[in-house]
Automatic annotation (TrEMBL):
Active-site residues, record numbering mapped to chain: 36 (proton acceptor), 176 (proton donor)
Annotated HAMAP family: RPE
PANTHER family recorded: RIBULOSE-5-PHOSPHATE-3-EPIMERASE
Function: Catalyzes the reversible epimerization of D-ribulose 5-phosphate to D-xylulose 5-phosphate.
Superkingdom: Bacteria
InterPro entries with a match to the protein in the record: Aldolase_TIM, Ribul_P_3_epim, Ribul_P_3_epim-like, RibuloseP-bd_barrel
GO BP: pentose catabolic process; pentose-phosphate shunt
Name of this chain's protein: Ribulose-phosphate 3-epimerase
EC class of the enzyme, as a word: isomerase
Cofactor note text: Binds 1 divalent metal cation per subunit.
The entry's keywords: Carbohydrate metabolism, Cobalt, Isomerase, Manganese, Metal-binding, Zinc
Gene: rpe
Source organism phylogeny: Bacteria, Pseudomonadati, Bacteroidota, Bacteroidia, Marinilabiliales
Length: 217
């Protein structure tokens, strides 16, 4: 059963008024608060890190869904748990020993998630899907908000859903990039459980209503 969960990305929030935006998300029907951590090496952009995560966690009423777009994520697993992450996503492309990384995330008390870049095929997760709590499909190239949706993401979601069902795995499917009401509806229909949306939510006239509408797609 599709759950229709929503994870607004604070990469598109107003950082001058970040506390107000977090309070708004607390009032909304958002299920998670999505935090994009970029190091300027793994992706061509720098966002924010542990101090901001800690500040957000102190006032957030929703679990923090932290997406690490960084090299050597293993160095920071326990630090992000201490900062308040509930879900920690690492990139398949950044982890040499992915199973070990997933085990460490779980041992630290967080849910473990793996992200696939647009060019990375779903079948590479076949031997680890049963160990994952979530898989994040990137529907844009990671690094910047507001990019155009890559249509192949629909097929990747369908393939991933088939893999999860074939393995009888308990794993959510999350999608990030170019998510709006049109793409969101199709993603839910393809089998996605969690939609990440940044600029579409935060730049709308009424972000709370926009989040609520996602839940009703």
């Amino acid at each position: 059963m599709i759950q229709k969960l929503v994870a607004p990305s604070i990469l598109s929030a107003d950082f001058i008024r970040l506390g107000d935006d977090i309070a708004m998300l607390n009032r909304s029907q958002a299920d998670y608060i999505h935090c994009d951590v970029m190091d300027g090496v793994f992706v061509p952009n720098i966002s924010f890190g542990l101090p901001v995560i800690s500040q957000v966690a102190a006032i957030a009423a929703k679990p923090l869904d932290v997406h690490l777009m960084i090299v050597n994520p293993d160095q920071y697993i326990e630090a992000f748990q201490a900062a308040g992450a509930a879900i920690l996503t690492v990139h398949y492309e950044a982890c040499t020993h992915l199973h070990r990384t997933i085990e460490r995330i779980k041992a630290a008390g967080m849910k473990a998630s793996v992200c696939l870049n647009p060019h990375t095929p779903v079948h590479l997760l076949e031997d680890i899907i049963e160990d994952l709590d979530m898989v994040l499909i990137m529907s844009v190239n990671p690094g910047f908000g507001g990019q155009r949706f890559i249509e192949n993401a629909y097929q990747k979601v369908k393939k991933l859903k088939e893999l999860i069902l074939s393995k009888n795995a308990d794993c959510l499917i999350e999608v990030d990039g170019g998510v709006n009401f049109e793409t969101g509806k199709e993603l839910y229909e393809a089998g996605a459980d969690v939609l990440v949306s940044g600029s579409f939510i935060f730049q709308s006239e009424d972000p709370v209503a926009t989040i609520n509408h996602f839940k009703a797609l």
